[in-house]
Amino acid sequence: MASMENLPVVLFHRRSSYTLALKDRLSPHFHLLDPFDTQEPISSFLSVHGYSIRALLCVGYTPITSETLNFLPSLELIVAGSAGVDHIALQECHRRGITITNASLAFAEDAADHAVGLLIDVLRRISAADRFVRAGSWPVMGDFPLGFKLGGKRVGIVGYGSVGSEVAKRLAAFGCNIAYNSRKRKPSVPFPYYENVHNLAVDSDILILCCSLTKETHHIINEGVMKSLGKGVIVNVGRGSLVDEKTLVQFLVEGKLGGAGLDVFENEPHVPKEMLCLDNVVLSAHRAVFTPESFEALIELCLANLKAFFSNEPLQSVVKIE
Amino acid sequence: MASMENLPVVLFHRRSSYTLALKDRLSPHFHLLDPFDTQEPISSFLSVHGYSIRALLCVGYTPITSETLNFLPSLELIVAGSAGVDHIALQECHRRGITITNASLAFAEDAADHAVGLLIDVLRRISAADRFVRAGSWPVMGDFPLGFKLGGKRVGIVGYGSVGSEVAKRLAAFGCNIAYNSRKRKPSVPFPYYENVHNLAVDSDILILCCSLTKETHHIINEGVMKSLGKGVIVNVGRGSLVDEKTLVQFLVEGKLGGAGLDVFENEPHVPKEMLCLDNVVLSAHRAVFTPESFEALIELCLANLKAFFSNEPLQSVVKIE
Hints:
Two copies of one chain form a homodimer.
Chain A: E1 9-13, H1 22-26, E2 31-33, H2 42-49, E3 55-58, H3 66-70, E4 77-80, H4 90-96, E5 99-101, H5 104-124, H6 126-134, H7 138-141, E6 154-158, H8 162-173, E7 177-181, H9 197-202, E8 206-209, H10 223-229, E9 233-236, H11 245-253, E10 259-262, E11 281-283, H12 292-310
Parallel strand pairs in A: 1-2, 1-3, 3-4, 4-5, 6-7, 6-8, 8-9, 9-10, 10-11
């Protein structure tokens, strides 16, 4: 076994409570500096070790603030073990010339599968039917109310990155008519582009939120967009704060929206209690990107990017900061 | 408006309780004979009118027995308003040279959507997560257990007709590896063919049942097949009796199967009570083929086939009886 001293040093940046197979899988290849291995406060740990650290693995959503970065003057690479990177001070990284990679490649297929699952569930009322059957209502009340067909529906995808493109690929096979909104038109994408999410909502039966949470996308789905969507369906596998949740709840309760499939919420793990009794809503607990298979893909991606960095090879899934 | 006497006569074969927009939509084009429009018992109604009837529209699952056919010596065509035709005496129709059309074309996309929805729901535990969130367990119990990824799974489709082929089209877009079993190999299908459902189960993580219920397919998923599938998942959008339900329940309760997504049951509307508390099972109430859009497609298909028959034009979705 190689001596740990010969291995490249990587800061293992995590919360105290976070445990993952990641560490076991990475430790044969890197000298992992984990502040929680010591009794020291993190700030004093970083004061001692921070100067030499060139690469950092960010586990889950552990925040990386400007203050954290002040301890790490030699930092060149942040490997984020998450799809979203809104917990990282992106502009400060940009200013310092720090490269960030995310894990959306590892998670994109899972997130897309979950988005499609939530959508079919809302339209065809699967979870509601499951409640109906489990409650013993079928023999008593007869036929369960009809759902709606997926094929032919106009689906607007908000955020056409790795997740959005996987959603499009799947829903095209169901016969949906797809359009998308993103910061820029993507020349290689065959679907209609909408620069404005309001216009996309007007022309859609369904909106699927797959974008990152940034200052620009915070509450991108506001009251005006919901009005434009009318009796449509919103599916959110991005971040809770993409949607003005208070208005979403009001629109759902008042029947102004057709339904919603939500994996993320503004104040997780708290879900607005008004939603808990609605039959046209399907709720999951921020699990869109979590399967054993995606964890395995995450480990492989983190390993590959860290190895590539220390060998001066090209990185995968680099985050563009604009 | 054309006098009813000039319109072709069609027997509107239905149960007393069955109501549908079908009749309103067909009546401008055909002279519909509906036994329930009179006070007569059906047998005496058929004794009077049966001799002249060349075409019959079978609404829902109204049985057509040999006895029914004895009243209808001139019958040439049965237009079934359902995907399955196991409520019709097929061999007797074959003997008498009666052509049967079914409605699987109208329902195939809905049934395939529902099958995929059930599958994602079982694998990614969406209905179970929805129960977890609605019960207020997320803040109390923390992370909900992981589901499994759909991509890369080996999916065996049992019955590769109109529904099975639509399921395959959808699951290919999710990155599943597809194989199929049917009476005969289909030369145009690009996926591996298994003559034997046991061998298909051995090589599958998931079985999706899309075949008709016949003498040959009754309990096609028996104990041996379930053993061959191991910890896999069964999705049934065909008919309840395709599966030995007693054994299915036992295998699910004992954890010998990974899970099940079931829209159909052996003794509907009754669902085995042991299933009602299982978290790896998703239950819907025989709704796979019912949406307003598929009803509209059904009406169009029935109209088209009846018009084609009376104009000596080719029929759509003729049932092959072997």
